[in-house]
């Protein structure tokens, strides 16, 4: 590559969340980015959990190693953080909003999210445009675009890389003639987006030079939707180097923290606390066979998203959903059999994967489902909702089991099959899954990303 590109990334969720409030209020000397070299990950700050940040950071690292990019910048929403920081070769910039503005922004963001997931309970776009909340949504996107513009004046970027639905209007607000890539991370199913929203989405999408969808199905839906601009399918991905593989003894030592006995049969569900993630379906299915498998335990791993966290938008749906699950567990008499771990560190999560018998992704809607890839990397069999985008890589009975999340009995049947299995079926599913994971690993993705950026930027 003759010359490395200057790339500016834009996401809602910040790469880093600041645990030390003193650090959150710190600014760099002479308004220069604060260097995090003297601070400690896990104590002063942490990398945000979640698929987008988990995917983009390894990509930036790899493209830097390949000499494809240089001096990358990353802009995101973060009311509790320094204005800008240096971290892992990146310069991170925070868009600040008051709590009042963030509340209005969060209302519209959730409304659009429900529309895209086919669960709309809100007004159409024309009515929302006249609300005070929409003005805050527009304010956030405008503030983001203005920061991107100022950074471009100082750094002369070659391309903007914008991620996820809540950032969609940013492209229309960037006045400078620089190539813009938009990556859509949530579901995009034919027929899910109501007709009265189509013109709004299409208007925003046309301001991008490339639109990336996570699956072939979503790409077809985008075309059926009427979008005629440049678009590609690129699978989400993870970097295997981000994972550890503790010994059985080490994994059990971690699991003891949550009362897991060495003889317990552990079923693992990993996902944020959100009704869309279907943890209730997993609990209900588990309840039908708990008495038949007295050593089985269901572990629900995850906390709220950035939007529902106190470090983010402080929306309450994560806490409300967890409270509802806890009540369900109590009502079904499953206390001690179903365990909610909350947020766990990556080493702890790796231990839980290694300790599990198999994993379940019970989502009612799932843009892709990288937790399935994580299961495969840990050579664990997996049971997956047929509403997850990753089902494009699944061959039922060969590299996983697939069920309808609206039918609890369907999941219960698959749980029973894998709990009762002496090990041959689980082993076969896990090994075939491990092989199926290759399109979703960073080695495959990096080359695709470079080719895509070259196509957008030009010679």
Task: Please describe the topology of this protein.
Layout: E1 7-10, E2 16-18, H1 21-24, E3 34-35, E4 45-47, H2 51-65, E5 73-77, E6 84-87, E7 90-95, H3 99-116, H4 125-128, H5 132-155, E8 159-163, H6 170-173, E9 180-183, H7 195-205, E10 210-213, H8 216-225, E11 231-233, H9 248-255, E12 265-270, H10 279-287, E13 296-301, H11 317-331, E14 338-342, H12 346-355, E15 358-361, H13 370-377, E16 381-385, E17 401-403, H14 408-420, H15 424-436, H16 442-457
Parallel strand pairs: 1-5, 1-8, 3-6, 5-7, 8-9, 9-10, 10-11, 12-13, 12-15, 13-14, 15-16, 16-17
Antiparallel strand pairs: 2-4, 6-7
Helix pairs in contact: 2-16, 3-5, 9-12, 10-14, 13-15
Give structural notes.
Helix 3 packs across helix 5, helix 10 crosses helix 14 and helix 13 packs across helix 15. The protein has two domains: 247 residues, Glycogen Phosphorylase B (Rossmann fold, 3-Layer(aba) Sandwich), CATH 3.40.50.2000; 201 residues, Rossmann fold, CATH 3.40.50. A hairpin with a 2-residue loop joins strand 6 and strand 7. The mean pLDDT is 91. It is globular. By secondary structure, the chain is α/β, with parallel strands linked by helices. The chain is built from 16 helices and 17 strands.
């Amino acid at each position: 590559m003759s010359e490395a590109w200057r790339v500016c990334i834009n996401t809602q969720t910040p790469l880093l969340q600041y645990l030390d409030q003193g650090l959150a209020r710190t600014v760099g000397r002479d308004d220069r980015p604060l260097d995090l070299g003297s601070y400690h990950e896990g104590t002063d700050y942490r990398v945000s959990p979640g698929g987008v940040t988990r995917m983009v950071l390894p990509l930036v690292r790899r493209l830097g190693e390949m000499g494809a990019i240089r001096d990358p910048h990353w802009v995101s929403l973060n009311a509790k953080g320094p204005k800008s920081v240096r971290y892992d070769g990146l310069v991170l910039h925070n868009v600040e909003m008051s709590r009042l503005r963030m509340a209005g922004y969060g209302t519209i963001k959730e409304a659009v999210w429900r529309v895209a997931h086919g669960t709309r309970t809100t007004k159409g776009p024309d009515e929302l445009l006249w609300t005070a909340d929409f003005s805050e949504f527009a304010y956030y996107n405008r503030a983001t675009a203005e920061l991107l513009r100022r950074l471009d004046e100082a750094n002369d970027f070659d391309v903007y890389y914008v991620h996820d639905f809540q950032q969609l209007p940013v492209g229309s607000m960037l006045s400078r003639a620089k190539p813009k890539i938009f990556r859509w991370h949530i579901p995009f199913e034919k027929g899910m987006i109501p007709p009265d929203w189509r013109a709004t989405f299409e208007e925003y999408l046309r301001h991008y030079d490339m639109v990336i969808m996570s699956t072939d199905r979503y790409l077809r839906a985008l075309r059926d939707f009427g979008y005629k601009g440049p678009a590609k399918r690129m699978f989400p991905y993870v970097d295997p180097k981000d994972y550890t593989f503790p010994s059985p003894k080490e994994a059990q030592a971690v699991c003891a923290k949550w009362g897991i006995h060495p003889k317990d049969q552990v079923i693992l569900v990993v996902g944020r606390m959100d009704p869309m993630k279907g943890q209730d379906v997993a609990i209900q299915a588990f309840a039908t066979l708990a008495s038949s498998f007295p050593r089985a335990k269901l572990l629900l791993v995850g906390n709220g998203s950035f939007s529902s966290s106190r470090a983010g938008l402080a929306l309450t749906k994560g806490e409300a959903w967890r409270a509802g699950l806890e009540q369900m567990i109590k009502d079904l008499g499953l206390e001690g059999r179903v365990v909610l771990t909350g947020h766990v560190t990556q080493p702890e999560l790796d231990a839980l994967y290694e300790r599990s018998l198999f994993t379940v992704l019970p989502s009612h809607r799932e843009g892709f489902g990288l937790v399935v890839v994580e299961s495969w990397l840990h050579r664990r069999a997996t049971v997956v909702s047929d509403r997850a985008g990753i089902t494009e890589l699944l061959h039922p009975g060969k590299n996983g089991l697939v069920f309808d999340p609206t039918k609890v009995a369907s999941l219960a049947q698959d749980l029973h099959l894998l709990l009762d299995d002496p090990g041959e079926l689980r082993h076969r599913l896990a090994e075939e899954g491990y092989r199926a994971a290759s399109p979703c690993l960073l080695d495959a993705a990096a080359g695709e990303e470079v080719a895509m950026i070259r196509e957008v930027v030009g010679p």
